[in-house]
Amino acid sequence: MGTEKIVILTGAGLSAESGVPTFRDTNGIWAKYDYREVATPEGFARNPVRVHEFYNMRRRAHAGIRPNAAHAALARLEREHEGEVWVVTQNVDALHEAAGSRNLIHMHGELFRALCAKCGARTPWSEDMSLTTACASCTAAGGMRPDVVWFGEMPYHMQRIRELLEAADLFISIGTSGNVYPAAGFVAEARAAGAHTVELNLEPSEGRSLFAEAVYGPATSVVPAYVEKMLNAGGVSVPRT
Ligand code: APR
Fold first, then answer.
1. Cα 48 to Cα 74, 85, 114, distances in angstroms
2. 144: part of which helix (H) or strand (E)?
3. How far apart are CA 24 and CA 228, in angstroms?
4. What atom in ligand 1 is closest to the CA of residue 24?
5. 108 catalytic, yes or no?
6. Ligand 1 centre and the CA of 194: distance in Å?
7. What top-level class would CATH report for the domain 21-61+109-148?
8. Whose C-alpha lies nearest to ligand 1, atom 28?
């Protein structure tokens, strides 16, 4: 079993078969909502009620949502591969955790956490949120927002992510369209550091030409098959590109 370091970037396509809408597919979230109104600091300042309603709807829509076979395959890889496996997810859902992934970084924050603008506390949050919601930590009201990274804000844990990419032997991108930076640039960083790069997606992404290898199809079939191949091929035999 190899001890290769594996870094996996995931996007909305990984949760699609769990019933979570993606952003840019035909019936995606951005086909129904204007991201400038519901996913930017300016939109929140202009109309916080609308933004709270958007995230309240998304929290409620996650009730009963379960991880799928692709989430489970990534948790299995972390358990069974001898080397380090890290998932860097753009997703704000809690499906990687529910499937058992432990080495997990939410670079765009988490739908089920709240951030208090008054005291900076981040607390688990699954209820509706409004302008009158009080902070669980400082008890002040009026400063609560979802702990998600909006367009124009800096994604979380970027230093740690860059260190992981620098040390990766294998970089796998799953279920992301490659439209949003800095995540869309991770494949180039991993490749420059000498990692083998793989895209597992329903269809070729914007960054398709940057990957050394690609397998296209639904995540619930492509991801378990790729993990099975890696674990049964006596480890990850990655050519050093
Ligand atoms: N299996 C595998 N891939 C799928 C599936 C599936 N069942 N369904 C859709 N996909 C792919 C699509 O082909 C597309 O390439 O998942 C990708 C989803 O792309 P986006 O909707 O753009 O989602 P994502 O790439 O995660 O968006 C990145 O943009 O809006 C911001 O912060 C938001 O984290 C999000 C970021």
1. 36, 38, 14
2. strand 144-148
3. 29
4. 21
5. yes
6. 26
7. alpha beta
8. 180
> CA dist 17 to 12, 42, 68, 217, Å?
10, 32, 7, 12
Tell me where in the chain the CATH 3.40.50.1220 domain(s) lie: 1-19+66-108+155-241
What's the gap in Å between 192 CA and the centre of ligand 1? 24
- Stretch 155-171: mean pLDDT, rounded? 98
Q: How far apart are the first and last CA of the chain?
A: 20
In this predicted model, what pLDDT tens digit does every residue of 28-70 receive, in sequence order? 999 999 999 999 999 999 999 999 999 999 999 998 899 999 9
pLDDT(241) > 50: no
The answer to whether the CB of 204 is under 6 A from ligand 1 is: no
The domain 1-19+66-108+155-241 is placed in CATH, from the list 3.40.140.10, 3.40.50.1220, 3.30.930.10, 3.40.30.10, at 3.40.50.1220
pLDDT digits (tens, 9 = 90+) for 58-104: 999 998 899 999 999 999 999 999 999 999 999 999 999 999 999 99
pTM: 0.96
Determine the Cα–Cα distance for residues 5 and 3; give it in Å rounded to an integer.
Answer: 6
Residue 5 alpha carbon to ligand 1 centre in Å:
24
